Amino acid sequence: MTDLFQEPNDATPLAPEEREGLLQSWITYRADLNEAEQENIVKGANWARRSRRRTVIGILNDEFVRELHKKMFGDVWNWAGSYRQTERNIGIEAYRIPNELGALLGDVKYWVDQETYRPDEIAVRFHHRIVKIHPFPNGNGRHARLLADMLIELLGGEPFTWGGGSLADVGELRKNYIAALQAADGFNIGPLLEFARS
Fold first, then answer.
1. What is the pLDDT of residues 64-94, one digit of tens each?
2. Which residues neighbour 176 within 8 Å (Cβ) at sequence distance 6 or greater?
3. How far apart are CA 31 and CA 33, in angstroms?
4. Which of 24, 146, 4 has the alpha carbon at shortest distance from 77?
5. Span 16-196: which CATH code?
6. Calpha distance 110→36 (Å, rounded)
7. Helix (H) or strand (E) holding 41
8. What is the pLDDT of residues 91-135, one digit of tens each?
9. Environment class of residue 88 by beta-carbon count within 10 Å: exposed (0-12), middle (13-18) or buried (19+)?
10. Fewer CB near the last or first residue (10 Å), C or N of the chain?
11. 9-13, 51-55, 68-72, 133-137 — which is least confidently predicted?
12. Residues 6+ apart with CB under 8 A from 31
């Protein structure tokens, strides 16, 4: 028995059928999985930064959101880029994902067009809502952070630092990130805005 699918206490565990989607047979330990996912995420981020759809409208659509997830995790998981079909201890019911994500993308376009919030707040609110929807079986936070970074850059800002460390590791940094997300769940976006720039 390995620790491969032992998640941190605040992470969402994969369903058994999702675990079967692992594409790399050499991955047997959690450290292997983290390494493979990180390599894939770097490739996905490079693809995103070169993407011809690098406009606000280009990234705020369902196709791009799913394609980015696939580019970030598709070398590791066969379900990458597909919305989850299973229920979670976080996120909305699976059947609501397409509609809720569509509503979010429309909201963000409106916020940008109407300058409803400052650019940092638009990007951080986007990040928070996508994490709250939790559209994919795994990788939602990492995916949402990259989308928020892309959006803030397109709005003329600098990418966020997200605490300046690895949020994959259990520890104080991840605890602070989760606490900031929970504050945003309670309609207090301030701690997440602060964390994003810390």
1. 999 999 999 999 999 999 999 999 888 999 9
2. 163, 195
3. 5
4. 24
5. 1.10.3290.10
6. 37
7. helix 30-50
8. 999 999 999 999 999 999 999 999 999 999 999 999 999 999 999
9. middle
10. N
11. 9-13
12. none
Tokens of 189: 């976006």
- Per the CB < 8 A criterion, the answer to whether 129 and 101 are in contact is no
**Number of alpha helices (DSSP H) and beta strands (DSSP E) in the chain:** 9, 0
What are the domain boundaries of the chain? 16-196
Q: Are the beta carbons of 121 and 96 closer than 8 angstroms?
A: no
- Give the closest residue to 79 by CA, choosing from 164, 123, 136: 136
Nearest residue to 131 via CA among 181, 195, 70: 181
Query: Scanning the structure block, which residue is given the tokens 């759809």?
Result: 53
How far is residue 187's CA from residue 181's CA, in Å, rounded to a whole number?
10
**Residues 6+ away with beta carbon under 8 Å from 67:** 81
Q: How far apart are CA 192 and CA 186, in angstroms?
A: 12
144-160 residues labelled b (16+ CB within 10 A) or e (exposed) = bbbbbbbbbbbeebeeb
What's the CA gap between 63 and 185, in Å, rounded?
Answer: 26
